[in-house]
Amino acid sequence: MVARVQVPKDARRGEVIRIGILIQHPMETGYRLDSANQKVPKNAIRRFSCRYNGAEIFSAEMSPGIAANPFLQFATRAAESGTLEFSWVDDEGEQGSATEPIKVT
Amino acid sequence: MKRRSFIAAALGLPLLARAQAQSREDFFNSFDTDGLVKSVTGGRSAQRGRVNLELPLLADNGNSVPMKVSVESPMTEADHVKTLRLLSERNPERAMAVFHLGPRAGVAEVSSRVRLAGTQRVVALAEMSDGSLYMGTADVVVTLSACLDGAG
Predict the structure, then answer these.
(1) Do B117 and B92 form a contact (C-beta atoms < 8 A)?
(2) What residues does A74 pair with on adjacent strands?
């Protein structure tokens, strides 16, 4: 699963920064029919989490109520330089992850 | 059409338009928002306020509707938003998403894109660190519903 992450390249300590992520995923509702008129099984990113230097700062439980190729934007206070780790898992158990460095001055 | 019935119909039109304007409001108010909130909180009601849910008034396509929710909160260790739920009055799955926040967020703001299966009232429910519940709602007219295939 491919993802695109938006994190400011550098931030000032204590500043509130916005973190955005766009994950390529169909978020199948379970109601859609394929070309053979068979129901496509439900498959959505069930859980998403973001860690800042190992500590979880944001997590989400999602359903097919979130649009395909889910986009999430949330905020955090810049604390120290390091890495932001993103990880997620869908209903079929497939996992994805991404990391992004952050420089705090 | 006879002249008399035409005049009668013409006179009736403004009344009809008014009745329809009334029914739009009634339609959104017909949703049992309190019942929906109670179904996920174990019977507790939420106060209105502090939560601001931004959704377009009219969504052409229910498959992807931009959504932003923000909560008035200092987001400190003592007073912050713990969880933020998105509830739908009309989607097959009522609980669209749950977001877990904490004091490190700085501000209580989450943006995403949602699927909406029809014109409805959407509810954002926030649980604060002291356990209190606040909610904000948004009424969206959806022209093309999501989840149409085989949903019926």
Answers:
(1) yes
(2) A19
Residues B19 and B69 in one domain: no
Is A29 touching B (CB cutoff 8 A)?
A: yes
Torsion sign, CA atoms B139, B128, B35, B118:
positive
Q: What is the ipTM of this complex?
A: 0.93
B102 chain-A contacts, CB cut-off 8 A:
57-58
Express each pLDDT in A70-95 by its tens digit: 999 999 999 999 999 999 999 999 99
| Nearest CA-CA partner of A77 in A96, A59, A95, A57 | A57
Pick the CATH number of A1-11+21-30+54-105 from 2.40.400.10, 2.60.40.10, 2.60.290.11, 1.10.3210.10: 2.60.40.10
Phi-psi region of A53 (alpha: psi -120 to 50; beta: other; left: phi over 0): left
Radius of gyration of chain B, Cα coordinates, nearest whole angstrom: 20
Which residue in chain A is spatially nearest to B116 when comparing CA positions? Answer: A65
SS3 B117: coil
Answer whether B134's CB lies under 8 Å from B48's CB: yes
Determine, for residues B150 and A67 on separate chains, whether the beta-carbon distance falls below 8 Å: no
Q: How far apart are CA B41 and CA B19, in angstroms?
A: 36
Nearest CA in chain B to A72: B112
From residue B90, give the alpha-carbon distance in Å to each of B2, B40, B82, B135. 44, 15, 25, 17
Q: What is the pLDDT of residue B24?
A: 79
Nearest chain A CA: its distance from B116 CA (Å): 7
Q: Are residues B84 and B21 in the same domain?
A: no
